[in-house]
Amino acid sequence: MSLPEMISRHPQVTDASLNEALIEASRHANLCALFCTSCAEACVVEDGDMAQCIRNCLDCADVCTATARLGVRRTAQNVDVLRAQIEACILACNTCADECGKHDDPHCAKCAEMCRETARDFQKCLDTVD
């Protein structure tokens, strides 16, 4: 079963309220959280001071997870909170991507790429949240 199929079974969801862009961005955010967690763990054993990269990765992972959870809820939505959370996720992803982009490590490159994709997904769906 797919995530859109699961959400479509919600008693308050109609075809018009399914919002597949938000579902896809939420799915992507969960994946981004895993990438960021893996990157942070790899940064622990890198040479040099990786404290800021680790912090940004862990912050991004937590924000992505929270955003994904809010993005798939359909009962009595709080649109203002959802929009604020999406904006926070875009900021966390871009901040993490910028920091990871400063490092030559392959795990940082992949993390930065995933963060940028997730930020783009949420940016695209921000106007669809109502």
UniProtKB/TrEMBL annotation:
Coiled-coil residue spans: none
CDD domains, per the entry: DUF326
PANTHER family: CYTOPLASMIC PROTEIN (PTHR37310:SF1), CYTOPLASMIC PROTEIN-RELATED (PTHR37310)
Name of this chain's protein: Four-helix bundle copper-binding protein
